Amino acid sequence: SIEICKIAKDTKASLIILGSHGRTGMLRRLLGSVAEATVRHAPCSVFIVREQAAAT
After folding, report:
1. Quick check: 31 pLDDT over 60?
2. Residue of 19, 20, 14, 7 lying closest to 45 (CA atoms)
């Protein structure tokens, strides 16, 4: 997330678009969330695209 934010700042980006796996629970606590950290530190707006749920 630090590098994403640095590039956004250096290029004067107005929007960052990120994909998210939507992990929850213990896995998210262990690995953290790049999307969440990027939203917190980004110098611009962030649009998060979540993967589509499987059809049932």
Report:
1. no
2. 14
